[in-house]
Design a protein that fits this description.
It is a single chain. The chain has a domain of 100 residues: Electron Transport, Fmn-binding Protein, Chain A (Pnp Oxidase, Chain A), CATH 2.30.110. 14% of the residues lie in helices and 41% in strands. It has three helices and twelve strands; from the N terminus they run αβββββαβαββββββ. Strands 3-2-6-9-10-5-4 form a seven-stranded antiparallel sheet. It has a three-stranded antiparallel sheet with strand order 1-11-12, with no helix packed on it. The site of flavin mononucleotide has 17 residues, from β3 and β5.
């Protein structure tokens, strides 16, 4: 018997099997409250100037904050940051409660101990289907030696021990 699998299901299956890193992207809303979400749509765009992008679902509660603030901070998560990864992927309204964070010089909420941090100024906002693409220029950048967290088939984990074999 022929099975019918929709393009959407095949698309989701392919993208779900496309391994990525994981980021938490934060910003500050108009009232000065921190906002943010877990995102794996983050990617680099340009070297000169340094540009990055990420995509936000039209249903995301933090979308308006990203639109209004004009700045965002990308945290490339470290392998031991699984808990915070799921927390920022939840609908929890007070994601920043019980989480260590501080306000940067650029007035962005910054989480400690990530693998990398980029604070960006939004230079372009593109509507694309049910997502909005935010393109930002990197204004401040920091790196640690922490290994990154990976995302693959709805699970997160560390780089496999045999990676370099
Ligand atoms: C690994 C992972 C990657 C995700 N990537 C994205 C993404 O790139 N864009 C997006 O809009 N949502 C993404 N999500 C889902 C959001 O994190 C989730 O919908 C979150 O609840 C949105 O929070 P908010 O409604 O407070 O903005 C991802 C979730 C996970 C677990």
């Amino acid at each position: 018997m022929e099975t019918h699998i929709s393009h959407t299901d095949t698309f989701k299956a392919i993208m779900g099997s496309y391994p990525t890193g994981v980021t938490i992207i934060t910003t500050t809303d108009l009232e000065g409250n921190p906002a943010g979400l877990t995102a794996n749509s983050f990617t680099s765009v340009s070297i000169s100037p340094l540009l990055v992008l990420f995509c936000v679902d039209e249903k995301a509660g933090s979308l308006s904050a990203f639109r209004e603030s004009g700045r965002f901070a990308v945290h490339v998560l470290a392998e031991d940051q699984q808990e915070i990864c799921w927390r920022f992927a939840s609908r929890e309204p007070n994601k920043f409660n019980d989480v260590k964070w501080s306000l940067s010089e650029r007035k962005l909420p910054v989480l400690p101990d990530c693998a990398g941090l980029m604070e960006c100024k939004t230079v372009n906002v593109v509507e694309a289907g049910d997502h909005t693409i935010f393109i930002g220029e990197v204004e401040h950048i920091e790196k640690t030696d922490n290994e990154p967290l990976l995302y693959f088939r709805r699970k997160v984990g560390s780089i496999p021990a045999n990676w370099n074999e």
